[in-house]
Amino acid sequence: MQLKKFQHVNATTLDEATSILAGGKAQVIAGGTDLIGTLRAQFLIDYPETVVNLKTIPGLDYIKEEGGMLKIGALTRLEDIAIDSTVKSKYAALAEAAHKTASPHIREMGTIGGNICQLNRCWYFRKPNNWFDCLRKNPTGLCYAQLGDNRYHSIFGGVGGCFAVNPSDTAPALVVLDAKVVTSKRIVGIEEFMTGDLTKPTILDDDEIVTEIQVPEPAAGVKSAFIKFALRKSIDFPIVNCAAAIGGGAARICLNAVSHNPHRATAAEGAIAGKTIDEANAEAAGAEAVKGAMALPYNKWKIPIAKAMVKRAILACK
Amino acid sequence: MAEQPYATLDEFNYIGQSGLRRKDGLEKASGKALFTRDVSIPGMLIAKTFLSPIPHGIIKSLDTSKAEALPGVHAILRYDDPELAGESEFASWGWTAQYQTVLNQIAHWAGAPMGFAIAAVDERTVDEALKLVDVEWEVLPFELDYEESAKDEVILEAHRELETNIRSDGSANPSTQGDVEAGFAEADHIKSFTFKDEEDVWAGVEALSCVAVWRGEHLDIWVHAQTPNPAQLRLAGYHDFVAVGYFMRARAPGDPFSPANKVNVHSVYQGGQFGGPNWNPFYCNYPLIAAWLAKRTQKPVKHLLDASNFCNRGYDEATHYMEVGFKNDGTITAIRSKCYHSTVDLPFKVGKGTGVPNLLNYTIVPYINKGPKSCYRHGMKESGGLNLPFSIVAAELGMPMTEIALKNDGCKGHSMDWVNENVKAEWGWTRDSLAEVIAAGKAAIDWDNKWHPAGTKQLPNGRMHGMGFSFNHEWDPDPNTYLQPNQVCVAIQRTEGSVRILARHSDGGWTGETTYCQIVADELGAKYDDVEIRPFDDAYFELKQGMGSSGLVCSSPILVEAARRCKEKLLEICTEPTGPGGRAIFPDLNPEDLDVKDSVVFEKADPENKKTFYQVCQRDWQFHDPPVGWAANHMHGYTVYNLMRQAHFMEVEVDTETGEVIITKVVNVNDVGKCITPESVKGQQYGGAYMGIGNSRNEAVYYDPTTGVQLNDNLIDYKWFSMNDIQGPMEQIIVETGMGYGAYGIAGCSEAVGATMATSTSDAIYNAIGKRITSFPTTPDKVLRALGKA
Asked: Does the first or last residue of chain B, that is N or C, have fewer Cβ atoms within 10 Å of its Cβ?
């Protein structure tokens, strides 16, 4: 299908962009790798009358260390993050997550801001032409996945009856690195930012824009890693991914694509924090991570994979 | 010794040569190649056909008034249009045996194009108009599973007064070779197994489309199709036709459309979509709808199929209940298969390339509510039907499968001893193809050092190591297997001397244009760069790709014949006294005194006595016939034996924690008889390997069980493989034994690898983990389940 008609505005300032958003029926576009597919497929009930281009706003594309933290402009492309020497050396989980996202072409277009704001994935939700009137579009609708083919869906329960998963690769890395998201209105932690709510998956108001990601410099001795399992190496969303940051007696571990939101594996964190990173301890932590998993009829296979991802992410922090 | 069954040459100049410039290379590599979807004509309207939102139902009423009132809408063609009424049911949608009219009133599957089509000023308006049509449905029960449908608990098409869902039942008339009961009786062991494959699809890179424009009473139409000729005939013989496969009856008197000589079908470059007669509903009906709309609006119309149809019309979905009987020494005595839906024809596919004497299979085809099945690329059923029994016998006996393959080599159920004595001796053939391809492949992958008993080798990285193998006969050696009205003309341009091959040809991406020019250059004695083919337009002549299979096997004999006739005519012209004074170009010589090389005619006894094509063609051209030769294919009388083989090897590592299968090396060995274009053959091996591996590892169509709607009809969720998905190196080896029946002894290749090596993965996984997976694709969830972990 073709895109429907909409007005395209090249914003030159954040104020201009937010004022257009405040007018209603508008959406922002940065890399556009998720939005264009969304608009072409026309699977959402509301279609924007205006699309506001953020790429024309200067000064939102940067990677720098400042004030004891890494600052990444929201328009920074994933490939730039993946190859940045500072990110690779100090924030390895984030660099690896960016590198493992999608394909080279998409990484050259997609931005870090867009990657944490993308809509959940579910083939019922995203079926073109709003084919399935599902819960994410209509509170009185159905979760077709619950009764249907749910091989790629949540293994940690649903939110409001919906089992679609968050597919971001960078989000779990940002979670374990305890990142903050700067918007045009506020600064919040990444976990608070990603609400996972059915119809409003981030805290962003309709007239609010992500402007920066802030990642505190890891404490001495902390190592981070990111592991992804997908059906194809060339281009794919994760079946399961996992990031871990371990050291100094603490551990942060986060899975994604297993639930509606990035899923902190707190039991696994408890199992490995302060312990020697070895095969046995990592295996035990992996088992802890999936103890609360509840398979749907088609997706039991994701549980051993999630366990293996946790184990391997931990071992990669050695 | 009998005469060779094919044309040959004493010397090959361009045939077999690497490094030639591809005739289509610059256009494609530079992005300048014109594809059907690119065709644009000033004033052109865009049309689309409605796609059914439900898997089974009848349109009770249709209100198109709101769509008609939408600015920009020019025409709506409805299933109940008086000019479409009375249209015969059109063939079937392949093996699923659904009924099809130009615009169906009945939806057979969710996503089916049917009901009505709209033409408007642009695609956006068409999309909007399609949503404005009110459709009232009579919703019918649907079924997605063949075996459930076969139970007849719910008669799905009771409205047609049908009493069963089964469209055909082959049990009363199975396909057989030998005596299968006797074969099982003499077996030391009998193993039963179920071999299941999910539906997979073509997943092409160019969404289907066609463009129609009327110029007075003449219709010009651009069709994305494997075989443009049926579309031409379909358009010409619109009414009162009979369609069986490709063959249609001529038009009836009073047809509203032109006869075939007024329909000009153009076939430009194409991004995929090939395979068999089952595409007729698309490339006959879709152009027909475009032609109707163009006639009504008096404007050019481009008819688009949505991109979701990349992933419609699958293939291979089937459940096979198989048995294999074998002796302690590995001799297979019998194979039997009962199959739901998509058969593996054991005598045709297994019998002709092995010595297994006793075979029987039959197929039950129930009606279900999925998209029509098209043999767009052969795959699992071919590979599995042959290789799984061999692999299972090897496993039972603890032997490498290569030994079982060699043990049972033969042809039409005969042993190799019989073949050597009764077939090869007749033609003077002495080579043993299977032994050669296996030896070459084993050496390339170091098979003898790496193969091990199943489930016994764990690598330092914790993964299990496995080696896999698959084999088959060549694809196909016989021009008559896919005989069609194939014809070609080779012409030297009068007054100028360049060489043209005249024929329309559907671009299959396998460098056919280059290969044709190599053959004609060598046969005619022309320079390769002096020979061209632009195969996009109706030239009466047509070089088909077989019925999607063995294209060059079918077209090479007539290319050779046409080029030789052209050469005869050229030499005749050179020695004919013509023109003022009646002096020949080569006075006092006969055609047999001359030869041709590098686009130069010369006297054999005095090579310095020579004339270029330009000199020959320029002189006195108005006094003699043009240097032209043509040829058409026809039946030959040989009894054909499949004697060439292909062998494929794979090395894998299986991650037992995730079910991932990492392919670390692939070796493809194909005996192609005679290799014309080495880069093309290797490309076909390479591409076929990706297709086969993707097919066996990931590709499957998934449906929502509660609504019958396909869920992964896009290239993100349909997990086709690309180059980056195979981690290890891939090596292609070409063997040339010359035992085919096409020109120079060639056989087909491109379809063969994908169709054969799909089960290499299964064999390799078994060798790695000691667990047999016979349900394809072998996705990680199935590997984990085999390991008891999911």
From this structure: N
Gap between the Cα atoms of A9 and A53, Å rounded: 6
Nearest by CB: A231 against B122, B698, B724 = B698
Check B706 against A148: CB less than 8 A apart: yes
CA dihedral B231, B234, B236, B237 (to 10 degrees): 170
> Look-up: residue for tokens 């993050």?
A81
Separation CA B731–CA B753 (nearest Å): 13
Q: Residue B542 is which amino acid? A: E
Residues 6+ apart with CB under 8 A from B489: B501, B502, B503, B539, B541, B562, B628, B629, B630
| Span A10-34, average pLDDT | 97
The DSSP element (H or E) to which B388 belongs, if any, is helix B380-397
Structural tokens at position B476: 């196909």
Residue among A292, A288, A286 nearest A306 (CA)? A286
Q: Give the pTM.
A: 0.94
Residues 715-744 of B with CB under 8 A from A: 716-717, 719, 721-725, 727
Which residues, at least 6 apart from A287, have a Cβ–Cβ distance to it below 8 Å? Answer: A307
Average pLDDT score, chain B: 88
Residue A40, judged by CB atoms within 10 A of its CB (0-12, 13-18, 19+), counts as middle
**Complex ipTM:** 0.97
What single letter denotes the amino acid at residue B426? E
Beta strands B113-120; B45-51: pairing state: antiparallel
Of A5, A229, A234, the CB nearest to B124: A5
For chain B, what percent of residues have pLDDT higher than 70?
Answer: 89
Query: What gap in Å lies between CA B487 and CA B497, rounded to an integer?
Result: 22
- Cβ-contact B184, B323 below 8 angstroms: yes
Tell me the pLDDT tens digit for each residue of B273-319. Answer: 666 544 555 656 778 889 889 999 999 999 998 766 665 666 678 89
Pairwise CA distance, residues A224 & A89, whole Å: 10
> CB-side exposure of A42: number of CA atoms within 13 Å?
12
**Taking a C-beta distance cutoff of 8 angstroms, is the pair B325, B187 a contact?**
yes
Cβ contact B725–A301 (<8 Å): no
CA geometry: angle B105, B108, B113, nearest 5 deg: 65
- From A145's Cα to the closest Cα of chain B, the distance in A is 8
**Do residues B609 and B668 make contact, with C-beta atoms less than 8 angstroms apart?**
no
Q: In this structure, are residues A217 and A303 in contact, taking their beta carbons and an 8 Å threshold? A: no
Q: What is the number of other CB atoms lying within 10 angstroms of the CB of residue A108? A: 14
Structure tokens at B259: 């006869």
